[in-house]
Each structure stands twice: as structure tokens, then as C-alpha cells.
Amino acid sequence: MDTAEFRRRGKEMVDYIADYLENIEGRQVYPDVVPGYLRNLIPDAAPEHPEAYEEIVKDIERVIMPGVTHWQSPYFYAYFPTGSSFPAMLADMLSGAIGCIGFSWAASPACTELETVMLDWLGKMLNLPKEFLAGTEGQGGGVIQSTASEATLVALLAARAKILKRLQAENPGLAEPEILSKLVAYSSDQAHCSVERAGLIGGVKMKKIPSDTKFSVGGEALRKVIEEDKAAGLIPFYCCATLGTTPSCAFDNIMEIGPICNSENMWMHIDAAYAGSSFICPEFRHLLNGVEFADSFNFNPHKWLLINFDCSAMWVKKRSEIIGAFKMDPLYLQHDHQESGLVTDYRHWQIPLGRRFRSLKMWFVFRTYGLKGLQEYIRKHVSLAHEFESLVRQDKRFEICGDVVLGLVCFRLKGSNALNEKLLKAINNGRKIHMVPCYLADSFVLRFAVCGRTTESKHIQLAWENITEIATEILQELQQ
């Protein structure tokens, strides 16, 4: 494909993408395919000779689209949103064209410097404490990770390196395996499974703190477990607090947890993967109060800030503590400015060395929408969630199962878990809308998350009609 053909094909693909998104609600939100469907539709080996581009494009609808779950559909209410906007897509095109691998400042100065500035821009939108911002003299700073899972792991590994260094300095005779065997980390019993996984990868014990009736962890529950573990000879070193849990969008009490972590010299990481985007709105910023106690903070702009995956924003108060855990400096990666104090080499801030030019997406989106436009988008989704909550509350057969704070509504039919499992299965089998469940206090609960960029009130109304029609059918069957 030469430049002339690329111009033509690029315009065709933009038209295809625009048509796909413009007409997405006409597509069935969840596919009908069975596992292994795709292998039978394509050859079992790559072609020996080039194929016509037209044939490849034809196969998008024949091979790919039948197996796509349409996350951008206004009838997709599962999991949490995944961001998508035209400016972000255009930025991704440019990133692909530049094709740099930004492991160091020298590898592509603009890739590094724009990321540093964009994380400062976003930190200021959130009104983060200045200690988290890079600026020109700060000890902290931000970095784009691939996912919140990766940010949680990076924070845990940095905390582990920090405690190992401190304890071995205090007790030179202590062997690393002995210390590691005693380390213990904490998270809520409502935390994402990726937090537990970080403990597995980091080779440390991860204990779940029981949450209260609001599915939140407070200071008293954390302190109790810490005291028990210290009495047993364990070494508490890390706590991951969640703001906006995956099951119900609950918020741990970081105003209570934070001072405890600080007094115990434990690393506190805050995972706000979904909810973090909302903190750019003044009316939701109080949910972040207590971040000043944290050592690191993370959320996913690629969930709710109209930035396409992947773009997970992470800030640390002291960048030296994260760099100290990951720094490797072979000759072939060194450059003239690395010890100047003027540049950042992001390979020391993450698990992989290579990284794409992801900050372009932030730059394009922030400038295209502005802070006001992004706030309006968040508020619209929250308003739609409250509209759905109101519909649920008007039907006495249903109950709301958690506070509706942002764009997630947890609800269920009054009755057994089996009844609600049957309801959700029938809804998803109908393929008109798509949702996923969770367990809250041993109850099987349906999660309704407002996700699509183009979701409007009419889609909420149609979704509720679909849910109530199926619920009526199931309840009538039971009566018969």
C-alpha cells in the first residue's frame, strides 16, 4: 500500500467507522456466536501471497462484527464505561503513524514531555495536592499506565521495595526472604480482583478488610486487623483503598484509613478506576477528600473521560520511590540528559520498557472538549443513572441495593437469588440490552451502568421496558 492508496483507504475507513458508530444502536448489542466461531471463517494459516485490500474489508462484516460485543452501544450497561470519542481516535491514528517507543526522553522527547504535562493538567482538573504534580520542581508526578490493575501492582512493588530497603538498613542481618514472608497488604473485601492478583504477583499476603453495610471500609476495621497482624509478627506495609468499587461503586473512608496508614508507615494507594473521572466536577470532588494521605493515586480516563483505551493515569508523591523499585540502566538505554534532573525516563515508572504515545489522546480530548465539556458528559451519565433509579423505585417488585452516587445502579427483584439469576439470564439472552451481576451481602444483584457516549433518556426508558416485560413474564410463570 503506497501513500496514495493509504489516503484513499484511510478516508474509506473513517467513513466505515463513522457509519458504524452512527448506526450502532441498530446492531444487536451482544453477539449470538459460540466459542470457536471465528476459526472456521478464516484459513488455518496466513496467506502466501498478498490479498486485495477490498477482500480484507469485506471480511470485517463477515468475520469480525458477528462476534463483537458493542461496548459503545447505548444498550450496553455492563461492567463500566470504556471511553471513546472521535478526537481520541484521531490522536491514536497520529500515535500509530509516529510509531515511537517512548521508553526514555531521548527515544522521543515530545512523547515524554507531553505525558508529564498532561498528567499535570489532569491533576489540576482533579485539584490534586501539589505534591502529586511534576511541575518543574515537584518530587511527585504522573505517568500513564495501561490499566488500573497495572497501577495497583506497580504501587505494591514500589511499596515492597521501600519497606525492604528500610528494614535491611535498620537490621543489616535481615535476609530478604525472611522479610517477604512477614509482609502483609490490605484491601477491602469489595476491592477489584486485580488487587488480590497484585499480591499474588508480588509474592506477599493480601488480606481483605470486611466492609460495612454501605460496602465501605473504615479506619476501625483496618486498625483492628493491623493490630492483630502486628501481634502475630507480621509487617503491614501496603493498603489499597477503593473509591468507586466495581460491585456497587462504594467508597472506602480514606479520611479514616489515610492517617492510620501514615502513622503505621504503610504505603496507601488509591484505586479510583471508574469514579476518578467524576472528581473533575466540583460536586463530586469531596469523594476524593483524604487523597492528601496517599502515596499514590490512580484512575482510568479511558473509562469515563472520552479517551479510548488504554490510558490509566497514576500519580505518586515521591517519584524516587517508584523509580527505585524499577530502575535498570543498561548502556544502550542511556542518554546525555538522563542525570540532568530536567527529564523523565518513564521506563523506570512501569513494568514494561516500551510505551506508546498515549498522551496525544489526552491532549486532543482535553482541548476539543475543554473541562466544561467533560464535566457536562459526566453529569449527563449521572443524571441518566438517577433516571433509571427513579424508574426502579416506582416499581414495588424491585429494590435498590446500594447508594446511587454516580453512573451505576444496583437493583434486583424482591425475592430469591435464583429468581434474579433467571431474570438476568433472560434479559441477556434477549440481546436487547446487556448487563452483568454482582453479589452484595450474599444477594445476587443486577448492575446497570450507564456506559455509551450516545446514551440518552429514550434508551434508559427502553431498557427499563425490556427489563419489566421480562420480569412480568417470569413472575407470571412462577404464579402458574
Instruction: Indicate the overall shape.
Output: globular
What is the succession of H and E elements?
Answer: HHHHEHHEHEHEHEEHEHHEEHEEH
Which structural class do the helices and strands define?
alpha/beta
> Residue-averaged pLDDT, rounded?
92
Strand content: 5-15%
Q: Order of strands across the biggest sheet?
A: 1-7-6-5-4-2-3
The number of helical elements comes to: 14
- The N- and C-terminal alpha carbons lie at a distance of 65 Å
The helix fraction, in percent, is: 40-55%
State the major sheet.
7 strands, mixed
What is the strand tally? 11
Q: What is the gyration radius calculated from CA atoms?
A: 24 Å
Low-confidence stretches: none
What report would you give on this structure?
The N and C termini lie far apart (65 Å). Helix 8 (219-231) runs parallel beside helix 9. It contains 14 helices and eleven strands. The radius of gyration is 24 Å and the shape is globular. Strands 1-7-6-5-4-2-3 form a seven-stranded mixed sheet, sandwiched between helices. A four-stranded antiparallel sheet has the order 8-9-11-10. The longest helix has 36 residues, at 359-394. 44% of the residues lie in helices and 12% in strands. It is an alpha/beta fold and 480 residues long.
